[in-house]
Amino acid sequence: MLRPIFRRLPGLVALLPLAPGAVSAFPGEARQLVLELEGGPIWQTVNDVQIPNDATGSRFSLVDVIGKGPWSAGRVYATWNLSERNGLRVLLAPLSVTESATLSAPVNFAGGSFGAGSPVEANYQFHSWRLSYRYRFHAGDNWQWWIGFTAKVRDARIRLVQDTVTAEKTDVGFVPLLHLAATYRLSCRWTAELDADALAGGPGRAEDAALKLRYRPADRWSLAAGYRTVEGGADVDEVYNFAWLHYAVASVGLEF
What we know:
By secondary structure, the protein is mostly beta strands. Helices cover 7% and strands 66% of the residues. The longest helix has 14 residues, at 2-15. Strands 1-3-4-8-9-10-11-12-13-14 form a ten-stranded antiparallel beta barrel. It has a two-stranded antiparallel ribbon with strand order 6-7. The protein has one domain (34-255): OMPT-like (Lipocalin, Beta Barrel). It is elongated, with a radius of gyration of 23 Å.
């Protein structure tokens, strides 16, 4: 009776990586390709705007116009590990919110004049497309650390519509950021993670940072939840805009 079992052993061994109880030696050690889909509600606590940034423009808060939220938002990561220490990551993070409200005071925005007391429709768009290079400079029993840089393309727009008056400001530009990430092993299935792209200096700043708790129910799958914050803006002649966004995030990851 044992002979048929031994004959099946090679096939059973080959299936072990797919078994729910199988996990890698270190949960943060990814295979060559890692995909992650993240989503959840988003709130804003600051979104101050003045366009143009001179006496002809009114400084007002988009929080007062479109509210604090929540709205839904999502992003997709694709990480390609070139070697044990070197990797590339692509991020697609679209965001667009449209709401209607009544202005409490007149607003001059991007060449248009908007009166108080009448409904106004506002659209806030902040799409972020990024390519990151990262280098793992530390790999210990419990900690792993990465450092690198990120090339970000910002596709932003603010638009106000009131009756027949429409005014908008678009901004598509390149933003270089520094990248830092860390993973701490809590157990064979649980890890705590920090991930950040940020840079400050000159007329503006940008920060996108997340803290997540990740669980690996299987070798190739992971589930995570945590908090993300995105903050920053610019103070230049054409635009004054600083926003602070907050995300409650959940994600699912798949390794190949």
